[in-house]
Amino acid sequence: MTQSNNNGTPKSSRAQTSLLNFFTTPKKAKAAERDSQEALLEQADAFMDQDMLEEVENMEKLATPSARKRKTTMDMEVDDEIKPSTLPRNGKNRRCIDDDSDYEDQPQSPTPARVNGKAAKAPTLGQLRFNAAGSSFTSNNDSLAASLNGNARLQGSSSSGLSSQSLSQQLQSPPRTPTDAKRARASAFAKKNEERYSWLEDVRDAQGLRPTEAGYDKRTLLIPQSAWKAFSPFERQYWEIKSRHWDTVVFFKKGKFYELYENDATIAHQEFDLKMTDRVNMRMAGVPESSFDNWVAQFVARGYRVARVDQMESRLAKEMRERGSSAKKGDNLVVRELTGVITAGTLVDPALLTQDLATYCLALVEQTQDDDSGNPTFGVAFVDTATAQFNMCTVPDDDGDRSYLETLLAQLNPREVLYVRGGAGPGSASRGRSVDDAVLSSPDARDGMAGISQATWRALKNTCAPTTDWIALAPRSEFWDAHTARREIDQYFSPWPAALQRAADTQPLALTAVGGLLSYLRTLKLDKDLATLGNFEFYSPVQHGSSLVLDGPSLANLDVFETESAGANGSLFSLLDHARTPFGRRLLRRWVCHPLGHADAINARMDAVEFCMGDAGNEIAAALARMPDLERILSRVHAGRCKVADFLALLSGLDAAAGFIAQMRSTYGASAPGRIQALVALFPELDIQELRAAFDANVAETEGRLIPHAGSDEQYDEALAAINEVDAWLDQHLADARQRFGCASIVYKHIGKEQYQLEVPASVKMPDSYLQLSATKSVRRYWSPELRTKTKQRAEALETRAMVLDSYQTRLYARFDRHYATAMKAVSVVAEIDCLLALASASYAMGAPACRAKIVESGTIEFEQLRHPCVALGRGGSDFVANDIKLGRRSGEDAATMVLLTGPNMGGKSTLLRQICLGVILAQIGCYVPAQAATITPVDRLFTRIGARDSLLAGRSTFMVEMAETAAIVRHATPRSLVVLDELGRGTSTHDGEAVAFGVLHALCARLGCLGIFSTHYGLLADSLLHADTLLRPMHMACAVDEEQHRVTFLYRLQHGVASKSHGMNVAAMAGVPEQIVSRASAIAEQFEQRLRQRRRATETATADASQMLPLPLQSDFANLLRMAALPPSTDSTAGYEQPIGGADAARKANENQYWSCIIDHLRRTMALRHNRPAVDLV
């Protein structure tokens, strides 16, 4: 009967199949293979992955003493570097000291392999190569290569045991090609994994749900108990983490590599062509530790989430930890932990951040109202993880189109959106029309735990970028409600930051959103690093009174941040962005989102911008140009994850900032504008030199390590003393060896991790107690009995010093972090100065003419020779036709507040509308305007309805989108607003569109009295209204027409009057429409125009008698009189009331307006009938 070892494997089988003792060096080798061991290792690294290299090294290290003895005596004639195993005399496996490589799954076979009754010889690494293309070994010993290729996975799993096929039989088999070996390995692996990993074929989440079933959680994986029992310790360690992050690519640290297994390895192979092998019972791919950041950036760019699992200790540190512990030893597992999950919306590592602007992760919770309005209230929280800046707000009583929410989303452009699972959106159990009913009727609707409604989901998808990641979290357990959030936040703060406390007291829905955000960050291992900074503030997307409100449609229509064709290029922000610092760019974007609303604030900023356009700006710009991203580095210092180079850059940047602020104070003093003086006074005192004196600056700059000065850190001094003590002993030991053996040429030799080998000439005879480690033809290398112990002591002392230095760096960062608020105050001052410089540079880049706008209080907007800012700044404005525009009561000709703009297709109407709006935005930001002269009254809100587009996802047609935006304008515009409407009503029939345009224009002129421009192709609309109201001024874009050649020359010049035609046929001919079609269309158009002329004549007859015509202001006044007479005194009885966004009474007031408009229409029709005149439709 065959005897068995303790693990159940037959001894005879283990002896026959062992490869670990097979390596002995042949007597002679080719001269081309006589390289040093270090060179061979480097060459092997280039041809095979790190794991295969460790296999060969481990095989050599596990050779038996008898094999080592034969090897030593046989290699005297070979000049190759030899590295025989260094086992103790008892034959037990000895691990190299300070070895970080992993042996978790490698079986050990101390019995040497034998072939035909003799111990087998092994080639050196020079004779053995790994074929990367064929994933196989090659050698001048073909039978050996075949055996390696057939058994390359023997050491991969202790749970599966070794192959039962004998090694001698494999050596006698015919040599296999690399392709054959690869196919054999793949076949064997597939068969084995089909049994061991059958649960990966039928994937289920932790609750047992399949991907096709409702409520499936893609983040978790169900692993049956039978599989857990079969796992090796290393496999168990891996799958414990991976099963909780199934939708995440896990980078698992092993030695100097990060490895990816199973599905993650397949992704790496398919996406990036990384080589995939089948080790440790799993498909595997790997990347070097040094290139981790680069590979993570590529995975994240492709839309993957990446989890990082690091070794928390070296193998030596593990041995040191276990030495004095009663914990179980011998499992060979180093401690590994999930140190972070990297997603596109939560990037914090500077190496992964590809842009200076903030990237937001946003949490959203929806609450329905108890009244009949059905208007939702939203709690919103978002964070820029790179700066640890948290913001939160409550969106109260939003309207059905989610206008307020869309504005916030357009300003932030979040990369990730978190929401409660249960309503609409991916990852939720329900879909369709019933979703809103379910959300509204759910008992969780009041605290936001019912999920989001279908209408909100449509708004999210319609506003956010296509690359946005949508993450559904389970209510309460993953998306904390307000009660849970209070309990969890107590773990971070005592007392709470003021903003958080205010949210807890007055805005529980905002606190719920913060809870969802913190819960998610906890799963990413980011919550403590970010939240404990305490940067929590309230955010207001619509700052009434203090700023110009730019809603979501306006930001999109005016290309403020992105254009439809070129993305960010060509947008207003890209052309203003002359900021020198990354944190200055982020502040400048906030300025563009919220232009100033008060005349005093605008003038103060303009004064500062003009100051920066002088010599002072050049001096400051030079100092800012080299400044790093101080704001982000401060966040990393707080987290304790800042690189030394970045920390030094932070100190230097703060030093530079203090320097140029001091220079500004001394040079300009009271002569600087008020805002500049205020910023100089706000800059705090920084004591950077005291912190610099705590460590060796030269070492920090050259070696990237923070080393305390001698005597300043007791722990470091003790660790350094231990190293010096061992070094002194080593020096003395070398001197003793030279004297004892009478050889002055004895030196220490360091090979790999086996340091301090005594290199002795081959002619010198050494005692038997000395352990030979390696040899060449001329020298031999030994460890004395004492030397082996001392080298290990030195390695442990170095490990202790490394841990002390890590601790010292953490303590130094914590010391600096105590002054975080002071440093951030300095950064804020520098950021604002940078923004002023950016506006100064943009103003200078506009060329001539450009001017500072004059700010007045009376309602007017006037521009002389205004150009489009983006053309003036970006694409050369010499060919651009400038125009004059006048709105409001300051204009000398009339008191028109609204321009009715007509003109040919492609005549420049839409461009004119945009340039007027952008001119106002520039003026209120504090920048110069590309015009000869400009006079404006600060606008409280800018409304635009430009362009035609539908919303397929939201199920809304082009006309529906038009009407929704128009409805928001009519509801929220005030007399201080600027309204721009481009060809309203084009998405429906001509008569319906004309009627809608008539009604809207009537409301804007007569009831609201706001400033604006109304572009239209409806000729009758102009004829009807211009006779009725002096608040409208007719203007058109001029052109020259060649009727015979169907050619239109666009002059792009704004002129008074109404355009006679739109010249659509001429544009059609220019576009290449066949001549026959154009001619037929022209004939039909002529028939339509005859009918239109008849209607015009009827209208002129109806309006000939002014006494029979009610001007629009009089109509509006009459309606107000009726309203005041009919409504109770407690109601709003004025026509120009200002309604909050999404006001609960918006629908009621809209119905009232429609009602009174019908009364007016009836009165006009009655008066027309009395005088036998045709009536004009008003609605």
Task: Explain what this protein looks like in three dimensions.
The structure is a single chain. With 1179 residues, this protein is α/β, with parallel strands linked by helices. It has 7 domains: 11-194, no CATH class; 200-342, DNA repair protein MutS, domain I (MutS, DNA mismatch repair protein, domain I, 3-Layer(aba) Sandwich), CATH 3.40.1170; 360-541, Nucleotidyltransferase, domain 5 (2-Layer Sandwich); 580-686 and 819-845, MutS, DNA mismatch repair protein, Chain A, domain 3 (Orthogonal Bundle); 714-813, MutS, DNA mismatch repair protein, Chain A, domain 3; 854-1105, P-loop containing nucleotide triphosphate hydrolases (Rossmann fold); 1112-1170, no CATH class. It is 44% helix and 14% strand. The strands form 7 sheets. Strands 17-27-28-29-25-30-31 form a 7-stranded mixed sheet, with helices on both faces. A hairpin with a 4-residue loop joins strand 30 and strand 31 (1047-1056). Helix 23 packs across helix 32 (820-845) and helix 24 packs antiparallel against helix 26 (644-667).
- Across the major sheet, the strand order is 17-27-28-29-25-30-31
**CA-CA gap between termini:** 105 Å
The tally of domains stands at: 7
Largest sheet: 7 strands, mixed
Estimate percent helicity: 40-55%
For the record, what is the CATH homologous superfamily label of the largest domain? P-loop containing nucleotide triphosphate hydrolases
Q: Which band does the percent of strand residues land in?
A: 5-15%
Q: What is the residue-mean pLDDT, rounded to a whole number?
A: 77
The CATH topology of the largest domain is what? Rossmann fold
